[in-house]
Amino acid sequence: TLFSRLPLISVALVQGKAVGGGAELITACDFRLMTPGSEIRFVHKHMGLVPGWGGAARLVRIVGSGAALQLLSGAASVDPERALRLGLSEETLLSSDESGALEEARAWLSQYTEGPASVIRAVKKVVTAGRELPVEAALRTEKDIFGTVWGGPANLQALVRRPKHK
């Protein structure tokens, strides 16, 4: 849970196998990327267990209850293609070698992390609030966080650039 609440955007890069606890850990990230030939597998049932680190609850929110039930009760291997279809992965990278995949993942993530860190943190806070809090509390949080960026340096610079009118 602490990992999912990090103030900046996180991404799990699955190279090889994310099995059991590793599969649970990737659900705590904001995004998941996979390399060719990689797999995700919730094998807890074969061990006489269920996920215990929040992986089941987060999996339901990521893929829906029906798909989560299939993945948890079937303990089937999820390849990159199926992960994309389920919404468990955002993209399959081209490279499977470690350095190439890491560079590709950094480039992919940059589209979400470019810009002022204060604004990225604010975005992450409102998304986390929307995911975890009741709607009324999430709305209050969003309003409060909006107040921290309105009139701030990033907002004022954007107004000078007038991006709304481009």
TrEMBL record:
<dbReference type="GO" id="GO:0005829">
    <property type="term" value="C:cytosol"/>
</dbReference>
<dbReference type="GO" id="GO:0004492">
    <property type="term" value="F:methyl/ethyl malonyl-CoA decarboxylase activity"/>
</dbReference>
<keyword id="KW-0456">Lyase</keyword>
<dbReference type="InterPro" id="IPR001753">
    <property type="entry name" value="Enoyl-CoA_hydra/iso"/>
</dbReference>
<comment type="function">
    <text>Decarboxylates ethylmalonyl-CoA, a potentially toxic metabolite, to form butyryl-CoA, suggesting it might be involved in metabolite proofreading. Acts preferentially on (S)-ethylmalonyl-CoA but also has some activity on the (R)-isomer. Also has methylmalonyl-CoA decarboxylase activity at lower level.</text>
</comment>
<comment type="similarity">
    <text>Belongs to the enoyl-CoA hydratase/isomerase family.</text>
</comment>
<protein>
    <recommendedName>
        <fullName>Ethylmalonyl-CoA decarboxylase</fullName>
        <ecNumber>4.1.1.94</ecNumber>
    </recommendedName>
</protein>
<keyword id="KW-0963">Cytoplasm</keyword>
<dbReference type="Pfam" id="PF00378">
    <property type="entry name" value="ECH_1"/>
</dbReference>
<dbReference type="GO" id="GO:0006635">
    <property type="term" value="P:fatty acid beta-oxidation"/>
</dbReference>
<dbReference type="InterPro" id="IPR018376">
    <property type="entry name" value="Enoyl-CoA_hyd/isom_CS"/>
</dbReference>
<dbReference type="InterPro" id="IPR029045">
    <property type="entry name" value="ClpP/crotonase-like_dom_sf"/>
</dbReference>
